Structure formats: C-alpha cells, structure tokens
Amino acid sequence: MEGNKKSIRRVAEEYAMLTIATLILCIGVYVFKFPNHFSFGGVTGIAVVLGALLPSTPGFITLAINMILLVLGFLVLGKSTGIRTAYVSVLTSVVLWAAEYIFPMEKPLTNEPVLEMIFAITLPSFASAVFFNMEASGGGTDILAMILKKYTHLNIGSALFLVDLFIVIASCFVFDATTGLISLCGLLAKSLVVDSVIENINLCKCFTIICDKPEPICKYITEELHRSATLYHATGAYMQNQKTVIVTIMKRSQAVELRNYIRRNEPTAFIAITNSSEIIGKGFRGFN
C-alpha cells in the first residue's frame, strides 16, 4: 500500500511538472513565436511557415501534425515515452488552439524583435529540456530528434538542430531574409539552451572529504541527508599521519547543507567539490 501511494505521488508530480513546462512552452510559442513568424523548427515552426501558405491557422496545423507524429512516437520510442509525449502534445495543441480564440494576437507584443526572439527561444527551450530529462518530448519534431538520439551518437541538442534546420531554410523562402536569419540564430541558440538546461537540471556535487573524525560526517550524510558514502584510509605525504577520505555525491541543495555542516563541526577537514551532470546508479538516474 505504501509503495502504491509513493508510485501515485511520483506520477502526479511528474505530470504536474509536465503541465507547468507545457504552459511555459505555449506562452513562448503563442505570445512570442507566432506573431513574429519565428521559425526555429519544430511543429510550431512548420505551422508558422504553412500558416502563411494555407488558410488554416498555426494552432490547427500544430494539432494536425502532432497527431500524425504521435503515432510514430508510440511505435518507435515505446509506451512510457509515448504516453508522456501524447499528454504534452495534446495539451500543447489544445492550449495553442484555444489561445487563438481567447487571446487573439494580430501583431507582436512589442516593437523589439530581438527581445521577443530571446523569449521565443528560452521559454520553449527550457520546456523542451524538462521534457527530454523526463524521457518525454514536446511532440512534433522533438519525437524525430529523440529517435535520432536513440539510434545515433548525437546528443539531443545536435539531433534537434539537424531535424529543425530544414524548417528554418524554408522560412527564408516563405518570409523575408530578416525573418530567416533571425530564425537561424534562434535555432542555434535553441540547441545550446536545451543541452545547457538538461545539464543543469541533472547537476550533482561530488565531495572528496579528507578528515580525522569521519563518524559525525558520515552520520550526518546518512541520517540527515539520506545519502551514502564510501570511506578510504589514507596516509598524509608530509606528516605521515593517518586520515580518512570520504567520497559522496548529492544534489546541489544537499551539498550546501553538507558543506556548512563540515565547516561548523570539522573545520580542519579538507574538502574538494566537483560538478557532474551524469551520475548513474541507485538514488540517481538510470537505476532499475
């Protein structure tokens, strides 16, 4: 029963995070991307281009293409990823479609295209990074990028760039050169932002602690921070005295607590702290 409660809570937290990220994506796309004809790639980029050529609205085009690519996602990426991606894709399509009727935008929000481009890049890129980190996607060409990542050695930023490049080139012909060049800059920035956000989301702190009294520190790590550690016995090169080396890894918020605890209670301890965004094992990622 306790396990079922934890499982339900974890799923609820995941979908709450997906919902928040989807709303952030929709704000960036509808408020900043659509009115300026920015085509950074993705289904929304296709929708911007086709919206200028067809009588349909970008919101309806986004919905139609997402439904087609969702089937591909289920077939290639599996049920778990497919369900999350389906949720995000449907919610994105519905919100964008509804926004066209509730809050129609006939012109850009401001007269500053560069400022709007920044928001059009960062908001959807942040949302996409959250999706990818949760083994989901925003649907559309993100699905194609995840397929490329699965079957090649490309990271997700490079895969997104290759998938979306064709759409950016098309925008150069459908709109003017200025829009095309801005879209190209946006595509380059989008790839960098996605990789950077994913890395920061997963960032952990690796501690190497050299001390004389390891027991209080280990007790704090296991009982207060609910992490574990590995101990080594070492000999100092200068004084030849015996030391204990504690190696532990934890999230950034916990790292601050541990650092402050050691400073207060073991001020003579030597601490080396390094960053890592790829920790695989129990309590972290990739452990079944």
Descriptive report:
With 288 residues, the chain is of the alpha+beta class. The protein contains 10 helices and 4 strands; from the N terminus they run H-H-H-H-H-H-H-H-E-H-E-E-H-E. A hairpin with a 6-residue loop joins strand 2 and strand 3. Helix 3 runs antiparallel to helix 4 and helix 7 runs antiparallel to helix 8. The longest helix is centred in the N-terminal third of the chain and has 32 residues. The mean pLDDT is 78.
Most strands sheet: 4 strands, antiparallel
Note poorly predicted spans: none
Residue fraction in strands: 5-15%
Percent of residues in helices: 55-70%
The end-to-end span amounts to: 20 Å
Q: If you average the pLDDT, what whole number results?
A: 78
Order of helices and strands: HHHHHHHHEHEEHE
**Number of helices in the DSSP assignment:** 10
Q: Overall 3D geometry?
A: elongated
CA radius of gyration is 24 Å
Structural class: alpha+beta
Number of strands: 4
Strand order of the largest sheet: 2-3-1-4
Attribute tags:
alpha+beta; 4 strands; 288 residues
Summarize the model shown.
By secondary structure, the protein is an alpha+beta fold.
What is the topological layout?
Blueprint (H helix, E strand, L loop, with lengths): L1 H32 L8 H12 L4 H20 L1 H24 L10 H21 L7 H11 L4 H19 L2 H25 L2 E8 L2 H11 L5 E6 L6 E10 H14 L4 E7 L12
